[in-house]
Amino acid sequence: MKAVIFDLDGVICFTDKLHYKAWKTVADEQGIYFDEKINDRLRGVSRMASLDIILERAGRAYSLDEKKEIAEKKNSIYVSLLDTMNENDLDDGVKEVLDTLRERGTLLAIGSSSKNTKKILEKLGLKDYFDAVSDGTNITRSKPDPEVFLKAAQMLGVEPEDAIVVEDALSGIDAALAGGFKCVGIGEAATHPQVTYSIKDMTELPEVVGGVFVS
Ligand code: BG6
Ligand code: MG
After folding, report:
1. Which has the closest alpha carbon to 200: 178, 184, 215?
2. What is the residue with the minimal CA distance to atom 14 of ligand 1?
């Protein structure tokens, strides 16, 4: 049995845009410059590590307590944006891809750095859709460390060489390769020099996966 491990934010759903909106609000409040290019560096990166990247542009050092406060504020803005989401926010193409893979008997997992993963899956009507969910709540090191994907493979009972990771983050491609997985890059991750396959759109995925796992 072969498996596909999906990143969540920016692959299954467009929550990457909501992360940006929430970080932009707190960065503006602090008077720190922040734009979509800097936001791209936050893809796949944990909440606190994301804040450290944003604070590179700050004119002063922030204490740990200040950082915790800002991260909590960002998360509460982000969570209220998530609360407006529902099943209609799941792209039809993405749903079709998941269904096609499931019908073929492919195991499906999530491998996300987000601690909000379960909430998002619930909002999108995907709560019981995946055979395993490995996320920010079960890891100690975020991407580019392979931990989140290795845990997902372990939960599925498959070896890394029998699974393929789908990612929109450069750090996610690094993580997949470090774990011994093949990987598919979408968006910025499609430009990673070592990516195994690049796709423009999720609808291209079943064909790519079919090619990889033909024995
Ligand atoms: C990743 C996102 O999926 O999760 C990152 O790409 C985000 O941008 C990280 O920082 C952590 O998310 P959360 O929801 O735990 O703050
Ligand atoms: Mg992502």
Report:
1. 184
2. 114
Residues with CB under 5 Å of ion ligand 2 are 7, 9-10, 43, 168-169
| pTM > 0.85: yes or no | yes
> CB of 39 closer than 6 A to ligand 1?
no
State whether the beta carbon of 117 lies less than 6 angstroms from ligand 1. no
Q: Where are the beta strands (DSSP E) in 97-192?
A: 107-111, 132-134, 163-167, 182-186
Catalytic: 174? no
- What is the residue extent of each domain of the chain? 3-13+86-213, 16-82
User: pLDDT per residue over 43-83, tens digit each?
Assistant: 999 999 999 999 999 999 999 999 999 999 999 999 999 99
Q: What does residue 172 show for φ and ψ, rounded to 5 degrees?
A: -70, -35
Q: What is the pLDDT of residues 76-118, one digit of tens each?
A: 999 999 999 999 999 999 999 999 999 999 999 999 999 999 9
Active site residue 7: yes
Assign domain 3-13+86-213 to its CATH superfamily: HAD superfamily/HAD-like (3.40.50.1000)
Architecture category of domain 16-82 in CATH: Orthogonal Bundle (1.10)
Same fold, 3-13+86-213 and 16-82: no
- Residue 147 CA to residue 175 CA, distance in Å, equals 8
